[in-house]
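Annex B, item 7. Sequence and structure tokens for protein A, then protein B.
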Amino acid sequence: MVKCLVWDLDNTLWQGTLLEDGEVRLSDEIRKTIVELDARGILQAVASKNDHEPAWQRLEELGVAEYFVLARIGWGPKSASVRAIADELNFAHKTIAFIDDQPAERAEVQFHLPEVRCYEAEAAAGLLGLPEFTPRARTIDSGKRRQMYQAGFRREAERADFAGPDEEFLRSLELEMRIFPATEAELSRVEELTLRTSQMNATGVHYSDETLRGLLADPGHEVLVVTMDDRFGTHGAVGVVLVERLARVWHLKLLATSCRVVSFGAGAVILNWLVDQAARAGVHVVADFRRTERNRIMEIAYRFAGFAESGCACLEGAAAGGVERLHLAAERREGSGVVKLIAPELGVGLGLVK
């Protein structure tokens, strides 16, 4: 799936060349495309060779500036602009698309960023019909994704201006995390997290909607959703935890969190909560982990939480598909000093505790 579409402006997003024509026009078809991509949760950005101020002013006059999370408007190479957008969003290049009317510009981006998908301007009206721009389901967070990223940029700007220690800044955010059993309403977002999250995904395994529904109905499994909020607004659903509770061991089959909450230590908060719950229940924890090209940071989170390779025979049968099993003898853990956690008691019927 495409996670962000980067638009050229002249003769692509709008009709005409701003510096030459003065007046440019946005067709109803392109406006519809912009609005619908936003509703589907696909972010949009701008990479244009123009003077920034008049170009951005024109986007505002056309009523579409708010739909673009980032704009790189200047006279440098388009590939540099697209790369900067991908870096700022922390997106893999293969999830970025670029649309431009100039073959030379598309070729330049393709040469330097071969994983970025490039489209000619004539394709703009048909993007909504392409599978890579068509999520299988709209989730509870889809229509809010752009606002969440924009709030994130405001949050980061305040962090940059904050003079105190980082932990003090995190406290100032009034972070609140909720962990709760998934319902039918959250299933599409849970499936999406298993698909879209690569850096903070412990196994890279995709769980389909059908599989998740089966696990919801299985009393031995817990499918848990993680949400976060702070004073800037909601981060939405940012994590999924899949645990099989056995008599002597809890099998953590999947932990995936959004890259947006890595800097808040979300993974560590979740793991410490789970380990503490296991200690209360008097069981060990075994976590599945499979190395991918991008999930090194998740491995570090597991190691810091105390998970290690072990000869523990807590689980029957061998792991498959390159999956390692990391073991931990659970002991009680202190809660986070910066994140207020509202979560269930896994060992006593999922009653919520603060």
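Protein B:
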Amino acid sequence: MRATIIYGPGDIRVEDRDYPTILQPTDAVVRVTAACVCGSDLWPYRGVKPTHEPSAIGHEFIGLVESIGDDVADLAVGDLVIAPFVISCGKCAQCLNGVTVACDHLAGWGGKDGAGLPIDGGQGQAVRIPLAESTLVKVPGITEPDDALRASLLTLSDVMATGHHAALAAKAGPGRTVVVVGDGAVGLCGVLAAKRLGAERIIAMSRHADRQAIAREFGATDIVEERGEDGVAKVRELLGGVLADSVLECVGTKESMEQALHSVRPGGALGFVGVPTGGAEIPLRYLFDTNISIGGGMAPARTYIPELLADVLAGNINPGRVFDVVMPLEEAPEAYRAMDERRAIKVLLVP
């Protein structure tokens, strides 16, 4: 099969790899029908996160079940499934508490499972799924979604679930004002999530016309292009002299965290989901003085997918709009370049 391999900074290749097979009785093999490049994939691509050896990459995909292990009862060959961005057991205390990203048996795509067996990356033609029943989410009654639905289903594996996590952590809801820092796919999904939760006013911080248009489509009432102190002042101006009740931090840099923290009113809440890239620190004294609450972190996508899936299938939300470019899997190197150079918001890859 063909699969995307990262060799080091700026070095993405699509190569031949062995087609996956069932190795454990709890496995399934899924033929990937859509995958994508994530903003967090850019950290190793840019060299921010080291790549010690060539490895399969990609953690967002949907596909059709091709085979199942003897212990898999709730999935069948032919099922369309969504793969969350990590593997989880569904039985440990962490999973039962809904924090599947802290599972006692946690494993990642492109890594190894608990038995030390290799796991395929999501940006390929097929993937062996360890702990398949507890990890995968079946899409009921559908095996061949149209392009728009396919894109929206794919967002549930990560970016829509992550935007939802940020909105929940920031306590977005009816009567609340919201600022979203970051206009990538996660930030745009954060806008949609805040709107879905009933936020009254949503300010998207964006300097890019194409992203601003999607933010407005998703529910943003205002756009702020200014940054730093000027951005904070603009938020205050828009909100009649006060800052936001809820702020979503969807980037992960020192600058984005500072922008987010100083856009929250005293007593407000901040939800951070941007993968920390070094430098961002939480100023405890500032939180103490302002009574700002802060939460977030890695989103437990497996916990959120069923709820969000219901709204996607009902047509209530269309998060797939964050995909502005579709490419064949063979063009994965160009997909990375396009996202790294901000020529694309998010690229959908078709094996």
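Comment on protein B: The mean pLDDT is 97.
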